[in-house]
Amino acid sequence: MSASPQFLFDFGSPNAFLSHEAIPAIAARTGVKFEYVPVLLGGIFKATNNRSPAETYAGVKNKREFHQLETERFLRRFKVKPYAWNPNFPVNTLNLMRAAIAAQLEGVFEQYVEAAFHHMWVEPKKMDDPDVAVAALTASGLDGAKLLARGQEAEVKAKLVANTQDAVERGAFGSPTFFVGKEMFFGKEQLRDVEEMIAS
Questions:
Q1: pLDDT under 50: residue ranges of the chain
Q2: pLDDT in tens, 87-141
Q3: Which among 11, 91, 94, 173 counts the fewest CB atoms within 10 Å?
Q4: Can the peptide bond before residue 82 be classed as cis, meaning omega within 30 degrees of 0?
Q5: CA 9 to CA 59: how far, in whole Å?
Q6: CA atoms of 151 and 167, how far apart (whole Å)
Q7: 120, 127 Cβ separation under 8 angstroms
C-alpha cells in the first residue's frame, strides 16, 4: 500500500481536473506529495455498472442546480478557477490515459498530466482525435506522437488495465477517487476530509 495519498483520475472528468487544481495547495499545507494513478473511467463504469452524473441525474429536479452550487463552493474553498466546458464531451479518453502510462515510463508524467488536463478543461479540444491530441501535446512541449504511439504498446495497455481493475477491487466506482492508506474518498468535495486525514 502506498504511503502517499493517491489520486485516481481520468482526464475525462471535470471534477478530476478541479481536484488536480486544488491538490498543490493541499500538498503545500501538509507537506505530503500525492501519487497520481491513471485509471480508465469507462472501464470502472463498466465494471461497476455506473454511469456519468450527466446520465444518472438527467431529469432529476434541482440536482443540476445543487451540483453547480457545490462546485461554486469548492472553487471558493480551494481558490481554484472553474473549468471551461468541453463542447466535445464526453471525450473518449482511452488513448489519453494509455499515453499517461507511457509518460510515466518516459519520465515526463507531471508535464503530461498538466498538458492533458489543460487541453481538456482550460482550452478544451477534441482530445480523442489523434491528430488534435498530438498537436496539443506537442504545443505543450511534449513529444505527442511518441507518447500516443507508446500508448499502444502491450505493456502500457496492460498497466492501465491493471490500475483500473485494482481501483475497482479497492472500492472505486468513479473519478476522482482518493485513497489515504486503505481509506477511500470519492468526489472532489471530499478533498477536505482527505486533507484532514493526512494532517492527523
A1: 1-2
A2: 999 999 999 999 999 999 999 999 999 999 999 999 999 999 999 999 999 999 9
A3: 173
A4: no
A5: 27
A6: 20
A7: yes
